[in-house]
Amino acid sequence: MKASEADLLFIPGYGNSGPDHWQTRWQSKLASARRVEQHSWHEPVRDHWVQSIAEAIEAAQKPVVLVAHSLGIGPALQAVPEFKGKVAGAFLVSPPNLLQPGQLPPGLALDRLNSFGPYPRDPLPFPSITVASRDDPYGSYEHAGDIANAWGSLLVDAGNSGHINVDSGHGPWPEGTMVFAQFLSRLKHPAV
Fold it and tell me: Which domain holds residue 104?
């Protein structure tokens, strides 16, 4: 599948993805990409996030490819069941451990984070890649491997890359661009 044949839905995590974040950079270069906006990026409410993502999937005119980072992953997958025939694939980066975080982003309360979990553990009805770092402060590589295995997702080892965000030096993230392009090229239109 070509990028132009899909609606690429970018789903940031807590705090949104700033101008130098790889999600924002990729989105600005892909004509078929759009960001799923949330009611509040700094006081996240799971049901609101799920609803925003579900509405974006429903509004899509082409097959959907989810590009979710961090706290955006859980609600993205929770929004899918109604619309699984519209989703061609998911590119999931840096899944935090929602129930036993190593540390919390500044300003995010543990009860808000916990309300986003646990992750769905059913196999995903479409191809997916989960990219995880070995030293992510918000979730271990072992945790990412466990949930990727449950989802039937290909786990990509990003090495020691922190949370794969601007703070860990991943603004443009060219390695991620290559993995995403290869993933996208192998996707097929979903069977409705």
Answer: 3-186
